[in-house]
Design brief:
By secondary structure, the protein is mainly alpha-helical. The protein has a domain of 45 residues. The chain has three helices and no strands. The protein is 75% helix and 0% strand.
């Protein structure tokens, strides 16, 4: 497996077109992993307290929109 410094060096050698493709791929990977983590947090009920707090603020009129 490549080390981080080797990856960085390889990135500097990419053409502008290849770099753009890498950046788009990396953004998609980041979004996918973020979505997966969010789904896991929802399944693990880690967001329940935040949802309850938000609902309470809306119901008491303390929410600005």
């Amino acid at each position: 497996m490549m080390k981080l410094e080797q990856i960085k060096s390889a990135i500097f050698q990419l053409s502008p077109d290849e770099l753009e493709k890498l950046m788009k791929w990396f953004a998609e990977l980041d979004y996918q992993r973020w979505d997966e983590q969010l789904e896991k947090d929802v399944a693990d009920r880690k967001l329940e307290a935040l949802a309850t707090e938000a609902i309470a603020e809306v119901e008491t009129g303390h929410c600005r929109g």
